[in-house]
Design brief:
globular; alpha/beta; 9-stranded mixed β-sheet; 18 helices; about 40% helix; 5-stranded parallel β-sheet; about 475 residues; about 25% strand
């Protein structure tokens, strides 16, 4: 699809009211390094560096819907515990309506803890309860669902087999949709008859093979699988995701349509199915035809697997991917930068950090950035926001806005990631990223570099790069004002 068409589809999805029903979970990541084997048992010893949390399961679907511009309402179950509180806070921060979440004091909030070292998942620990909720809680969930569905454009069912999605609940959901509201299901049950009456179903390869008892190798296998799936649940649209082979779509019994995946470096497949359900379902809810909605979901899933951990995919990322813009793709927020750097560091990469206004990029800047990159493997550049520049430089600066500065800096081969910070100093950004090397220009000394003390304390290095004589933004601006050469 062209960039213009993708932007039109993304615009059509904005503001659509989407209900997400399903199993809520909290994804916890324990980041560390593994350099030795335990003397007690033949297992790696992981030295923990930090922990992070993200909403997962149906909560991740809702998060993606909200980030994509939809209005997300979520219905599900959590425990009355600290994990449930974190999950609620994460969803609320993302702009998801959490009024439909029911608390069950007798069961824990589902938590999946992944231990990651040197870029690899070492271990996953699951804390969960899979039994269906008690009758009183089912009644509360049903009431929350009735309220949430009012005025909805689509219902997305995210089944992780943790007890919320039952035949009774699904039958009531599909009955309330009355054929007016599309119901899109990401299945977990091997019996797809559980989802009878849904508009669309989005199994992955393993789920489709288990449900149909087929091995999906050829187009003939896929065609037979689609027929069996449709016979079981009656779905108009069958979308089977095939990992690095992309996905296939069958719409209203027509021959399968293959949608190829773009080759990518895969960091983590966690949550990719949630992203597919969110974008495909949001597209159908916006009245977009199934083929275009599936292609958009395919692009979003490709972006999701190139991230570390569970993470929502933004429309700007999709547009940048379609445009093929390396500079825009390098632009990330702080949370994304932290996750990406932690993954790269665990794989043995050295993270270099520098910061500045970078207003009117000149040869001195390029020299600094190229020399900085040579000190490690990954260069992260933090730019002062426009407001931050004004506070530091005065009301006439910056001459170039943050969006353009990000694009220009990101276009340089030496730069790997670009973030924007709004504080007067990058101290909190440095503390979050924990770079291995902190770099500034030669007009600073180690004692005057913000963050140097922190970096040195945890064993990092602080380096200064000699300036290029006569090259500074201030002198460049003054020269232009005088009408002289730059």
């Amino acid at each position: 699809m062209s960039l213009e068409r993708i932007n039109a589809l993304l615009a059509a999805m904005r503001g659509r009211r989407i209900v997400v029903l399903g199993d809520l979970m909290l994804d916890e990541y324990v980041w560390g390094d593994a350099r030795r084997i335990s003397p007690d048992a033949p297992v790696p010893v992981v030295e923990v560096r930090r922990r992070s949390h993200a909403v997962g399961g149906a909560a991740n679907v809702a998060h993606n819907v909200a980030v994509a511009g939809g209005t997300a309402r979520i219905v599900g179950l959590i425990g009355d515990d600290a994990a449930g509180k974190l999950l609620i806070e994460g969803l609320a921060t993302a702009g998801v309506d959490v009024a439909g979440i029911v608390r069950d004091p007798t069961r824990p909030t589902t938590v999946k803890t992944r231990v990651v070292a040197r870029g690899q998942h070492v271990l996953r620990l699951d804390a969960e309860e899979r039994t269906p909720p008690a009758e009183g809680l089912r009644i509360k969930l049903a009431a929350a669902l009735v309220k949430a569905i009012d005025g909805a454009d689509a219902i997305l069912v995210s089944d992780y087999a943790k007890g919320v999605v039952t035949g009774e609940t699904l039958a009531a959901t599909i009955d309330q949709s009355a054929g007016r509201i599309p119901v899109i299901v990401d299945p977990k049950s091997l019996d797809f008859g559980l989802y009878r009456g849904c508009t669309a179903i989005t199994p992955n390869r393993a789920e489709a093979e288990a449900a149909t008892r087929l091995t999906l190798r050829t187009d003939g296998d896929l065609d037979e699988a689609v027929q069996r799936i449709r016979a079981a649940c009656g779905a108009r649209d069958v979308l089977i995701t095939l990992g690095d082979e992309g996905m296939i779509l069958s719409h209203e019994g027509r021959p399968i349509d293959r949608i190829a995946a773009r080759a990518r470096e895969v960091y983590d497949v966690t949550g990719a199915g949630d992203t597919v359900l969110a974008y495909f379902g949001l597209g159908l809810g916006a009245g977009i035809n199934a083929a275009e909605a599936a292609r958009l979901a395919n692009v979003a899933a490709g972006i999701a697997v190139a991230k570390v951990g569970t993470s929502a995919v933004t429309p700007s990322e999709i547009a940048a991917d379609a445009e093929g813009s390396r500079s825009t793709a390098k632009a990330v927020d702080l949370a994304q930068a932290v996750a990406r750097c932690e993954h790269l560091r665990s794989a043995g990469k050295r993270i270099v950090f520098t910061n500045g206004c970078f207003d009117l990029l000149h040869a001195g800047h390029v020299h600094l950035l190229e020399r900085a990159k040579a000190l490690g493997d990954v260069l992260v550049v933090a730019l002062n926001s426009d407001e931050s520049v004004r506070r530091l430089k005065g009301p006439e600066r910056p001459l170039v806005g943050a969006a353009d500065r990000v694009k220009v800096i990101g276009a340089l081969d030496a730069v790997d990631l670009v973030i924007v910070f709004d504080d007067d100093t990058p101290l909190e950004t440095i503390r979050a990223l924990r770079p291995d090397v902190l770099v500034k220009g030669g007009d600073y000394t180690v004692g005057t570099i913000v963050g140097a003390e922190d970096v040195i304390a945890y064993g990092g290095r602080v380096e200064t790069i000699p300036l290029v004589a006569g090259r500074s933004t201030s002198s460049l601006v003054e020269s232009v004002r005088r009408g002289g050469p730059s």
